[in-house]
Amino acid sequence: MHSEEYSHRGIWSSKIAFIFAAAGSAIGPGNIWRFPMMVGNNGGAVFVIVYVLVVVLIGLPVMIAELSLGRHSQRNPVGTFERIKPRTPWKLNGYLGVLTSLFILSYISVIAGWAVGYFIKVITGTFTGEVTSQFTEKVFIEFTSNQFQVFLFFMLTIGITVYIVSKGIQGGIEKWVKALMPFLLVLLVFLAIYAISLPGAAKGLAFYLNPDFSKLKGSVVVYALGQAFFSLSLGMGIMITLGSYIRKSENLISLAGWVCFSDTFIAILAGFIIFPTLSAIPGTSPSTGPGLVFQVLPLIFSKIPGGLIFGSLFFILLFIAAVTSTISLLEVPVSFAIDELKWSRTKAVWLSGSLAFLLGAPSALSSGGMTLFTKIDFMGTIDFFFGNLTLAISALVTCIFIVYVWKLKNAIKEIESGIKRFNLRFLWIFSITILAPAAILIILYFIKTITGFSSFN
Ligand code: PHE
User: Is 325 in the pocket of ligand 1 (CB under 6 A)?
Assistant: First the structure.
């Protein structure tokens, strides 16, 4: 029966294929743009330390939990809850995941589109000559209010995503992510080496690596938690979906470990690009906030030697990272439609892609969080609900479901199917039962202070 299901739904050809796809999902604007911003706003090195602890103690266990659910059910998020506890409202949590994925897909595609626009700006010489911060701000506002351009690049992103996902698990997602991820890594390492070698880099490095524990506050922990969930693509059914294509013989713990490690590695690498560069340019500040990538970096690219190459590489990279995330986001509604509605992959991809397109249009047209189209900050609102709120709620419900409905012993059986001994089983149980739910409740309590993409302008 399983082999039939595999052939109908698709399966990862190897362990590496899964790691690439899941790491591709996790690695995105959250690592390259959002993580450095969080570090900059939350005390530098001390945030980095708290973040790493949160990933290990909470992010990793929750990822193992989501993967085990998916592999057990071999279904999309809705089918997963339905299969384990049929005809109960638990499947609503699956629907929440499908919905969250569609919405996050819609606005991440807008941001990916901005990266394309900025790539073109850099290579066509917009940021050469005398460039001031007023100038880059003006360019940013003009660019994001040029609805035609933003819309075009947004369409391009959705189009590329639809194309890749329509090719299926082995032919599409696997192949493309495998090709794109190593390129991303090489570019980042290159840029980091370049940045560290800039004169004046040492101050930025000290800010990034030398912890000042007097800056350790409750808010640092809350931001670190929110960032970890967002960055690891947890709480929206992605890891359940990707887990459903994993063979029973694979070791889920090592798979999740690799994904968490590479996601964190790339985020930390991004910091090695941003902070040395910032300190190399007098007058810039690490706590510039959301405008960091789009307004401050072009300023830097215009001043340093080789800035044109440095700058264009950076924006290609941001685009690649975003697309490897949009692929996994689209796969959630697609797997739902294939499993539950019995649609063909082609139909599922085209209809889900069109839906994401329609949902993203207001974000694209609301000119980067400003109010031209809808008179509300559409993108900010979507991010608040779907980038923070539903994500945390869904992860919490998933933990409760595993502990009280599916039961820990079944989850452990699933996890142990690919390994000899689950050595850290008690740590995992502690995290899923107590640590992660408590942490998520804290996020929900402080949700208003977690901004995410919400203030993009
Ligand atoms: N995890 C991705 C990042 O770090 C973004 C993302 C969020 C992808 C939610 C999927 C779901 O940028």
Answer: yes
Distance in Å, CA 231 to ligand 1 centroid = 5
Q: Tell me, letter by letter, the H, E, C secondary structure of the chain.
A: CHHHHHHHHCCCCCHHHHHHHHHHHHCCHHHHHHHHHHHHHCCCHHHHHHHHHHHHHHHHHHHHHHHHHHHHHCCCHHHHHHHHCCCCCCHHHHHHHHHHHHHHHHHHHHHHHHHHHHHHHHHCCCCCCCCCHHHHHHHHHHHHHCHHHHHHHHHHHHHHHHHHHHCCHHHHHHHHHHHHHHHHHHHHHHHHHHHHCCCCHHHHHHHHHCCCHHHCCHHHHHHHHHHHHHHCCCCCCHHHHHHCCCCCCCCHHHHHHHHHHHHHHHHHHHHHHHHHHHHHCCCCCCCCHHHHHHHHHHHHHHHCCCHHHHHHHHHHHHHHHHHHHHHHHHHHHHHHHHHHCCCCHHHHHHHHHHHHHHHHHHHHHCCCCCCCCCCCCHHHHHHHHHHHHHHHHHHHHHHHHHHHHHHHHHHHHHHHCCCCCCCCHHHHHHHHHHHHHHHHHHHHHCHHHCCCCCCCC
pLDDT value, residue 449 = 57
**Ligand 1 atom with the shortest distance to the CA of 101:** 11
CA geometry: angle 208, 209, 214, nearest 5 deg? 85
Q: Would you say residue 258 has pLDDT above 50?
A: yes
Q: Give the model confidence (pLDDT) of 437-451 as tens digits.
A: 999 998 788 766 544
Q: How many CB atoms lie within 10 A of CB 220?
A: 19
pLDDT at residue 180 is higher than 70? yes
Minimal CA–CA distance to 428: which of 70, 94, 66? 66
How do residues 351-410 score in pLDDT, each as one tens digit? Answer: 999 999 998 887 777 654 444 444 456 777 777 778 777 888 899 999 999 999 999 999
Q: Is the pLDDT at 2 greater than 80, yes or no? A: no
Q: Mean pLDDT check: name the lowest of 244-253, 293-302, 404-413.
A: 293-302
Ligand 1 atom closest to Cα of residue 29 = 12
Gap from CA of 321 to ligand 1 centroid (Å): 9
